[in-house]
Structure of Fluoride-specific ion channel FluC:
Amino acid sequence: MTIEPLLVALGGSLGAPARYAVGTLTTDTRIPVSTLGVNVLGSFLLGVVTFGIASDTVALTVGVGACGAFTTFSSFSYETVEALRDDPVAGTANAVLSLVLSVSAVGVAYLAVAPV
C-alpha cells in the first residue's frame, strides 16, 4: 500500500471537523455565510498549496485531503436552491458571491505565492 491515501485521509480528518465547526457558527441567515466562508477560504488555501508549495506530500494532505473535506460544493448547491425557492434575490446573491469570491480567492493566492 502506498502512503498517498493515508495522507489524503489525514488531511480529511482535519478538514471535516473544521467544516463542521464553522457550520455551527451561523444559522438561519438568508445567505448561507458559513458555506460561503469555507468555500472561499478553502479555495484560497488550495490556491496557496497548488501554486506555492512544490511538495507532493503537502499537496495531497492539505490540498486534496483538508481542502476537499473542508469545502463543500454539495452544501452550496443545496443551500442555493433552498434560498432561490425562499428568496430569489438571496439565492442569486449566494450563487454569484460564491463563484466570484471563490475564484477570486484562488487568483489572489496565485498572485501571492506564484514564482515571478
Notes: The chain has a mean pLDDT of 94. The chain has one domain: 4-113. The longest helix spans residues 88-113.
